[in-house]
Amino acid sequence: MLLLQRLISVSAAIALLLIALLPRIAFGAAGVGLLTVDGAIGPASADYIARGIARSTEAGHQLVILKMDTPGGLDTSMRSVIKAILTSSVPVATYVAPSGARAASAGTYLLYASHVAAMAPGTNLGAATPVEVGIAPQQPDPDKAPPRGEPGAGKKGEKGEKGEDGADKPDTTPALTRKQINDAAAYLRGLAQMRGRNAEWAERAVRESVSLTAEEALAQNVIEYVAPDLPSLLAQMDGRTVSVMGQERRLATKGAVVAEFIPDWRTNVLAAITNPSVALLLMTIGIYGLVFEFMNPGAVAPGVIGAICLLLGLYGLQLLPVNYAGLALIVLGLMFMGAEAFLPSFGILGLGGIVAFVAGALMLIDTELPGYGIPPVLVGTLAVASALILIGTARLALNTRRRPVTSGAAGLIGAVCKVESVADKNAGEAWVRVEGEIWQAVSKAPLSPAQVVRIVGRKGLILEVVPLDKAQGA
């Protein structure tokens, strides 16, 4: 009986030990996926992050770490990444690193959306005010007070600064700007509440564009960890419990194997064609290729290359915040420059096309985010190249007009041919072969078969010829 009791006690102890170690057994062997983003959040990086999270899920990783250094990004791409994080069945930890990196604007939203937020010493986050697309930020009028709830307006909800007459000064913030700021503030505040982080500072980051260092962010409950490197971060997260889609997960990350996902060819190609400068170049080459194909039907190569480049350029542009008025001006300008080669406009179409192209290229990308503008130098280079092509085409057309006609009926005059047969030797009537065709010919001098003659005139379907001596004919 005593032996049985001891066996039961040992079995219970083993069971309790297994229960205690169950989270580590379940996740201890699982690795950690690592994604690295260095630059603005755009379509390519959003696709890379979403596919990286999916690959980590398939690989059975216990955690995905997003190592990030970004100045911000496009709103659509940022929201796409946040949706991937919020719907992921694997917890995601965002780590702003290395030292000197930042998580500005869109990076702050990603940090708040993640299950775990961490930063390296010497990094910063914040400045999450949405950039007003297409319009330069307006400077506040010093004689007018900020709107209620905005920086400098006093406490949230109170009326703005009063004027000398005691009346409230009017709210001069554009309605669209207020909508953008309120929407962004509510979005970031909602993410903060979901993750149990500082929601008040999140709203200030949007409305006042404030920023924090790593240590300040840790002290104000904006992030959970400050770690100098990845192994240190894994060691600090070990044993932490996170909520993933309503389920508690305990991490066992100390000493876990890290599997880094390197951007593949798809990400690199997408990053290239979604670069505004590359997209503009592709579209320009594409339209010129089609124009040259129409100028020389059957050349094939310009048409094939032009069609491919045009489709790639349009695909890249549809992923970017494009000003469609600018896009229309670019297409119109290129069409005008192409039409200059076909229509006698004396350069008016060409010059108008260059002006339309430059204006459209400068306003093409509808955002002020860093890395998404088209350099004026590139616009100027393309405009000069288009002008040179236009001048070259015009010179070619002028040189062609000065050449004598070498085809058709006018091209027969002066041609040398041979007599095929004689119809009436005395009357000087014969049949001659001209460029593979048999023509009736007459001459004032007698003709003989195989004699070389020159065409000097034409009356309907009858050619007037003069015989040449053997020396001239040779």
Largest sheet: 6 strands, parallel
- What percentage of amino acids are in beta strands? 15-25%
Principal-axis shape equals: elongated
* Unreliable runs: 20-29, 132-165
Mean of residue pLDDT values: 81
**Helix coverage percent:** 40-55%
Total discrete domains: 3
- Whole-number radius of gyration? 38 Å
Distance between the termini: 132 Å
Number of strands: 16
Describe the structure in your own words.
The protein has three domains: 31-138 and 174-265, 2-enoyl-CoA Hydratase, Chain A, domain 1; 274-402, no CATH class; 410-473, Nucleic acid-binding proteins (OB fold (Dihydrolipoamide Acetyltransferase, E2P)). It contains 15 helices and 16 strands. β1 (32-38), α2 and β2 (63-69) form a beta-alpha-beta unit. The protein starts with a helix and ends with a helix. α2 (43-59) runs parallel beside α3, α3 packs parallel to α4 and α10 packs antiparallel against α11. The longest helix has 27 residues, at 2-28. The chain is elongated and about 135 Å long. The chain has 474 residues and is α/β, with parallel strands linked by helices. The model is unreliable at 20-29 and 132-165 (pLDDT under 50). It has helices spanning 2-28, 43-59, 75-86, 106-113, 175-195, 199-207, 214-219, 230-237, 265-273, 276-295, 301-318, 324-339, 348-362, 376-402, 470-473; strands at residues 32-38, 63-69, 92-96, 102-104, 116-119, 124-126, 211-213, 225-226, 241-244, 247-250, 258-260, 416-424, 429-434, 437-442, 452-459, 462-467. A six-stranded parallel beta sheet has the order 8-5-3-2-1-11, with helices on both faces. The chain has a five-stranded mixed barrel with strand order 12-13-14-16-15. 46% of the residues lie in helices and 17% in strands.
